[in-house]
Specification:
Rossmann fold; 8-stranded mixed sheet; 5 helices; globular; binds adenosine-5'-triphosphate; binds magnesium ion
Length: 166
């Protein structure tokens, strides 16, 4: 059985907190990692990805923007960052037809996927899921789910940078 867990009840009080959280995730990423970002429009998925990119040493000259139209943006970093957005795709068939499924099997780069719930059965076996919920204008609640042993050793280091609620 696959190792998995959920870490709920974290809060990102403001943009700076989201930045620290994303930076830490980016620093810890290794090739083959898949990050699923979920949460409503404006929850902060792209904003978080910008900091993940910095943690992954994507040079500042690359401004990370939403790949809603292009579906995929690629950035050079410690490892290639594939930033996918499934918002405009309706489901598995669409995602395959767009040629995105091969990125989900990357061995050399890391994948960050917005609107990842659309992956359905294409969801890889091992992944880190970050769900963002808007609490206030600049405050986000975070729930982290992880699947697979590739995440179990890193989950503590990742959650250390988000404050527990309360
Ligand atoms: N603590 C915070 N964390 C993340 N974003 C924040 C925070 N506080 C304010 N924001 C703002 O919320 C907005 C989040 O927008 P963003 O484009 O990142 O959302 P998204 O989840 O990618 O939306 P979409 O589903 O449209 O792609 C930005 O304008 C950002 O500056
Ligand atoms: Mg976005």
């Amino acid at each position: 059985m696959i190792e998995k867990g959920t870490c709920a009840g974290f809060i990102l009080k403001n943009l700076a907190a989201t930045e620290r959280f994303g930076l830490r995730i980016g620093q810890l990423l290794i090739p083959g990692d898949i990050l699923l970002l979920t949460g409503d429009l404006g929850a902060g998925k792209t904003t978080l990805t910008q900091s993940i990119a910095r943690g992954l040493m994507v040079p500042e000259k690359y401004y990370v923007t939403s790949p809603s139209f292009a579906l995929l943006h690629e950035y050079p970093g410690r490892y290639p960052l594939y930033h996918l957005d499934c918002y405009r795709l309706s489901g598995e068939d669409d995602i395959e037809a767009a040629g995105l499924s091969e990125y989900l099997e990357t061995r050399t780069g890391v994948c960050v996927i917005e609107w990842a719930a659309r992956l359905g059965s294409l969801t890889p076996e091992q992944y880190l899921e970050v769900q963002l919920v808007v609490l206030k204008e600049d405050t986000r609640q975070v729930t982290i789910g992880w699947h697979g042993e590739r995440w179990s050793q890193r989950i503590e280091a990742i959650t250390q940078t988000a404050s527990p609620i309360g």
